[in-house]
Amino acid sequence: MNMYKDYLKEIEERKTQGLHPKPIDSAELLSEIIDHIRNTESGDRKDALQFFIYNTLPGTTSAAGAKAGFLKDIISGTIEVPEISPAFAFELLSHMKGGPSIEVLLDLALGHEAAIAKQAADVLKTQVFLYDADIDRLKEAFKAENPIAKEILESYARAEFFTKLPEVAEEIKVVTYIAGEGDISTDLLSPGNQAHSRSDRELHGKCMITPEAQQEIRQLQAQHPDKSVMLIAEKGTMGVGSSRMSGVNNVALWTGRQASPYVPFVNIAPIVGGTNGISPIFLTTVDVTGGIGIDLKNWVKKVDENGALVRNDKDEPILEEVYSVATGTVLTINTKEKKLYKDGEALIDISKALTPQKMEFIRAGGSYAIVFGKKIQTVAAKILEIEPTSVFAPSKEISHEGQGLTAVEKIFNRNAVGTTPGKVLHAGSDVRVEVNIVGSQDTTGLMTAQELESMAATVISPIVDGAYQSGCHTASVWDKKAQANIPKLMKFMNDFGLITARDPKGAYHSMTDVIHKVLNDITVDEWAIIIGGDSHTRMSKGVAFGADSGTVALALATGEASMPIPESVKVTFKGEMKDHMDFRDVVHATQAQMLQQFGGENVFQGRIIEVHIGTLPADQAFTFTDWTAEMKAKASICISEDDTLIESLEIAKGRIQIMIDKGMDNSRQVLQGLINKADKRIAEIKSGEKPALTPDANAKYYAEVVIDLDLIDEPMIADPDVNNADVSKRYTHDTIRALSYYQGDKKVDLGFVGSCMVHKGDLKILSRMLKNIEQQNGKVEFHAPLVVAAPTYNIIDELKAEGDWDLLQKYSGFEFNDLLPKSTARTEYENMMYLERPGCNLCMGNQEKAAKGDTVMATSTRLFQGRVVEDAERKKGESLLASTPVVVLSAILGRIPNISEYKAAVEGIDLTKFAPPAKQLSM
């Protein structure tokens, strides 16, 4: 019994870390535990019972199969365990959430023992995680006139799995805890450098905020045992940045309640708030766990007696406090009146946090149960040939007669399922949609696999056109953590039906390409809906939503997603881009000009940015859509001209073919199917049968923003403003400054060209700049390290073919070697150029990092505290974001250049250019 002994040894090791035994997912280990239970003389029997009952993971884990089988033997009387009665065995099965437990319950319900069948049926009526094979068994038994099968199906058609749940409490009392001032990144709740531990929920929970904060939360709970702790972003938005289920899991672990007494460290019902609300991706994740996310609006912009904004000496709106939510404040959420109370006084309306649909999620303990429940109710009613009982809140369907459709409204209408036939839906409508493309990334993938196991899914939905599992977030360092986790993840996802970056059999070279770059290539229809496990799932074709690991799992398992149709903001351009500017400067200027046009209000937040990009191909346009995550937009859509879209699709076809040539296609020939779809779409555009997607001319937008290219005269830099006196203004992406602000003397300690915000053109700009500077100065000398990480291997192959890679090799001091990958993260850098492996590298912050306290100039998207660079004792780390030429020159000079130095360095170089469409792109 070696596995059990190893488990006991691991338990002792975890005790030294203050951790409980790790939950069991292995059938081999559980089989040994069961042997101890069966052996009444075993000295380990008492502990074995505890492990079996309280510490075994449910769903489709192999341990769940062993547990379900043993419980079946107890119920059938094959074996007797005094501590587990048949009734208790049924209770344990009821908490196992599908997979083997459903198979056992169906065996018992459709068996010949009437009393057992009745008990099994009563448990099955509470379950919702049934799949086609389970439903087929019920359907066949019903056709054979089995009364138990009929009874179960009738219960499903009445949705008794939901109606018999307790109602949501009318009053929920909370005590506040200020987690931070300003925007709170998910990095604070689940740091990127702890990504390896996310699937070990208790261990990962120890990294939330700080140990001191965790202690303060425990103290609040001790002082207020009848209340929930509400985590708050004071003067900011809660959960900006990455799409992390682990962030919400950590909040729930510390402030929520246990989902099941028999499943450790899986908590639900967290309550979070933010002065400026909750980030859209984070709010979806809160819904997954049946929690509540509240837009507190406790600080508002001050106005004078005429209603005009009052501004400070920096021309910023002055905020004034409407009511206090200081740590320790007791508030009451009234779920009936949909209001937030303090000392009996209503503070604000919170109906958006407590919509009928969200109330269902809260009642059911999470959104999954509702999604699967609605599906099983519909299927059961169809088998019985009856109408399902009206139980769930009807989906809100908003339709404005005579009003046209935005691009996103068109996509949602095309992909919607279960809506009123013939009804055209506008923004605000709640819609279930079919998902075309799904992406899972490697640091959340293990959690996605856990979610798939917990919802008993074993194979990808056949309606998904394509799905990809990346290896980019762990590409930089092939350390022991990666070696332990990544092959296991890739095998699981490959077996599930995804195209995987690493071949479990080792037949093709592992591909560490950045996930959203790959998704951008495999999206071959601008009418597609994409769900990806990364906040930067923002395609330049279709509409893409960054999502938590659970929503990704749901999309993989069901091929569907549910959400309201978002409002859109239309972005168009005028003027002419100057030769010395790069398109990245246009991207930053878009945010700056938007904030200026709307008095500091971010009209992009929580909405779709419909950018009329026109003539910019997918690779370059992705630079804009990628950044929209930092604009706090829910998603973005590129409106392209026909010829440009065809060009982008041809590029995508070529890259998909490379994946096929590598041997990455699977038995379903998913990749070949995508090429076929691209050919069909190109033919439709060329023939005029179905031109490129455009909005209707009479579509209605929340706002329209016009960006004046003539105003962009120098490079634009996103600055974390780490020393701003107002803490809430630090580490946002809203401080956009012109190059001249720094007067050519701000020291730069490290430059980073890489991650998803660069394309092949950026690497060509880099090579041309190095050649340019050598010609001007006689040599290239780096006064700060320059780390370069191409986003994909395709780009490197193309650069090699075009001669640019030779130039980069000439000037570099280090080049990655896939045969000898780094086993430890780099902690010190020399003043030279590093050509690193394709992937996220410094942008992710979980492996490579700059030295503490460094000032980093990067092309990436992350400027959050501690992400790219941590603080030193005497100096704050800061990550400034800029275009490739600015970053390269900053590394060479060791400081931010002045405008004349910049212009000289880019002279004659073809920067990423953009021109507004010649005509309005709408129908």
State the gist of this model.
This protein is an alpha/beta fold.
Kindly report the oligomeric state of this protein.
single chain
First CA to last CA: what distance? 71 Å
Fraction of residues in helix:
25-40%
Number of helices: 31
- Give a count of the beta strands, DSSP E runs of length 2 or more: 33
Most strands sheet: 7 strands, mixed
Low-confidence stretches: none
Structural class: alpha/beta
What gross morphology would you assign?
globular
Strand order of the largest sheet: 8-7-3-1-11-12-13
β-strand amount: 15-25%
Mean of pLDDT: 94
- Cα-atom radius of gyration: 28 Å
List keywords for this structure.
33 strands; 31 helices; alpha/beta; single chain; seven-stranded mixed sheet; 923 residues; six-stranded parallel sheet
Question: Please, could you describe this protein's structure?
Answer:
The protein is α/β, with parallel strands linked by helices. The protein is globular, with a radius of gyration of 28 Å. Strands 8-7-3-1-11-12-13 form a seven-stranded mixed sheet, with helices on one face. It is 38% helix and 16% strand. The protein is built from 31 helices and 33 strands. Helix 2 crosses helix 3 (45-54) and helix 27 (760-777) packs parallel to helix 30. The mean pLDDT is 94.
Q: How does the SSE layout of this entry go?
A:
Blueprint: H1 2-15, H2 27-38, H3 45-54, H4 62-76, H5 86-94, H6 100-109, H7 114-124, H8 132-143, H9 147-157, H10 160-163, E1 171-181, E2 184-185, H11 186-189, H12 201-205, H13 211-223, E3 228-234, E4 238-240, H14 245-255, E5 257-260, E6 263-268, E7 271-274, H15 280-288, E8 292-295, E9 299-301, E10 319-321, E11 330-334, E12 339-342, E13 345-349, H16 356-364, H17 367-384, H18 407-415, E14 416-417, E15 430-434, E16 437-440, H19 442-454, E17 466-469, H20 480-496, E18 499-500, H21 515-522, E19 529-532, E20 543-546, H22 549-558, E21 560-564, E22 568-574, H23 583-597, E23 608-614, H24 618-627, E24 635-640, H25 642-662, H26 670-687, E25 703-708, E26 716-718, E27 736-738, E28 750-754, H27 760-777, E29 786-789, H28 793-802, H29 804-811, E30 812-815, E31 833-836, E32 855-858, E33 878-881, H30 884-893, H31 899-905
Parallel strand pairs: 1-3, 2-4, 3-7, 7-8, 16-17, 16-19, 17-18, 19-20, 22-23, 22-25, 23-24, 28-29, 28-32, 29-31, 30-31, 32-33
Antiparallel strand pairs: 1-11, 5-6, 9-10, 11-12, 12-13, 14-15, 15-21, 26-27
Helix pairs in contact: 2-3, 2-4, 4-5, 4-6, 5-7, 6-7, 7-9, 8-9, 9-17, 16-17, 19-20, 19-22, 23-24, 25-26, 27-29, 27-30
